Amino acid sequence: MRIGLAYNQKPDTANSAAEPSSTNDAFAEWDDPSTIAAVEQALGLFGSVVRLEADQAFPQQVALTRPDLVFNMAEGLRGQSREALVPAICEYLNIPYTGSDPLTLGLSLHKGRTKEILAYRGVPTAPFACVETQAELERLRLPFPVFVKPVAEGSGKGVFSNNLCDTPARLRERALFLLERYAEPVLVETYLPGPEFTVAILGNGAAAYCLPVIGFDFSALPPGAPPVYGYEAKWVWDRPEAPLAIFQCPALVPAGLYAEIERTALDAYQALGCRDWCRIDIRVDRFGVPNILELNPLPGIIPDPAMNSCFPKAARAAGFGYDELIQEVVRISWRRLTGKDIAVGTRGAPQHAAPPQVAGITA
C-alpha cells in the first residue's frame, strides 16, 4: 500500500525569526518538520509513504502519485475554505483520504457557521455575533464581558489574552484591530466564566468515543493573565524549556459534569458531520452547562510530550503511543471507507514527490 501524507510545513523563518514575546502567528496552524517526520514514521507500518506538500503543486502531485489513501493533516494555504481544499481535490480525483469531508472542514473553520449549526441542533454554545464593520459593533447587544477572535483561524491565531473585553471601548479597539489584521469577520461571543476543557474523539457514527477529557488549570498562567487558552498560552508562555503545567488529564471534575462534557462533545461531533477524529473545545457557562467553543477536525498532533499537544496527550492517557494514535486514525478511516481492516504492509523508504512536469506549473 502507498500512503500519501498531505501537510503544510512551517517555513524556516517561522521557526527561527519570532521572539518569544512576538504575536507573529502567521504560520501557527502549520506543522514543524519534526511533526511531519513523526507522522511519516507512524504511517510506514502500512507500506510506503509519499509526502504531498499542500502547496500550489498539490493537485498535480496527488494525481501523479495516486496513493491508496491520503492521510490529511494539511491546513491549506489561504482563504476561509482552505482546510477543505485537500479533501476536495482528493474527491475530485477519487482518492480516499482520512478525516472529515470538505463541507465539515469548511463549516468547522468558520466559527460563526459552526455555532449557527450547533444552536439549530440544540447543542449549547455561547450567544454570539459576527461583525465586519464598526457600524455592526455599535448595534451589538451582547452583555459584557465578551470575547473576540477571528472567525476562521486556528491554533490560537488571533486569540490573544487581551481579547477579553469588558467595555464598549475595549471591544471596539480589539475588534477593529482583528478586522484589519486578519481581513475576515470577527466573532464576538458572551464570555463563559466556568472551567474549560478539550475533548479528543475517535471513530464514526455510534462507534465514536471520547478519549480522556483534558481540563485546563489556568492558575499555571503568568500572574494577571486572564483565564484564556490562546496564542500566548500555546506558543509564547509554554516552551519546551519551561512548559506550562496547565493540563489535567483526565480532568478532575465531578462524574456528572464529566459525562455531560463527553455527551456535549459527541453531540457537536455528530451535528457537524465529523469523521474519524476531531478535538472539541468546551467551556462551562455561569449555570454550570458545558458549551461548545469550537471544533478542530484537523487536530494538532505534535509528538513531543513537552509541547502540551492536546490530542496526543489525551491519547497517551488512553494508552495510545504516538505511532499507535496515528495508526488508529488510519484504521478507523479505512474501515469507514471499505468496511474492512487495513493490512499491515512492508515498510518502504519514505518518498518525497518531485514537482510534476506540467506546463505552466512551478513548484
What does this structure look like?
- This protein is α+β, with helices and mostly antiparallel strands.
- The chain folds into 3 domains: 2-99 and 322-352, Rossmann fold, CATH 3.40.50; 125-190, Dna Ligase, domain 1 (2-Layer Sandwich); 196-317, 2-Layer Sandwich (D-amino Acid Aminotransferase, Chain A, domain 1).
- It is built from 12 helices and 14 strands.
- The chain has helices at residues 12-16, 33-43, 58-65, 85-92, 102-109, 111-120, 134-138, 168-182, 231-236, 255-271, 310-317, 322-338, and strands at residues 2-7, 48-53, 69-72, 128-131, 146-150, 164-165, 186-190, 196-202, 209-210, 214-216, 247-248, 277-284, 290-296, 351-352.
- Strand 8 (196-202) and strand 9 (209-210) form a beta hairpin.
Write a brief caption for the model:
The chain has 363 residues and is α+β, with helices and mostly antiparallel strands. The chain has twelve helices and 14 strands. A hairpin with a 6-residue loop joins strand 8 and strand 9.
Topology summary:
Blueprint: E1 2-7, H1 12-16, H2 33-43, E2 48-53, H3 58-65, E3 69-72, H4 85-92, H5 102-109, H6 111-120, E4 128-131, H7 134-138, E5 146-150, E6 164-165, H8 168-182, E7 186-190, E8 196-202, E9 209-210, E10 214-216, H9 231-236, E11 247-248, H10 255-271, E12 277-284, E13 290-296, H11 310-317, H12 322-338, E14 351-352
Parallel strand pairs: 1-2, 1-3, 2-14
Antiparallel strand pairs: 4-7, 5-6, 5-7, 8-9, 8-10, 8-12, 10-11, 12-13
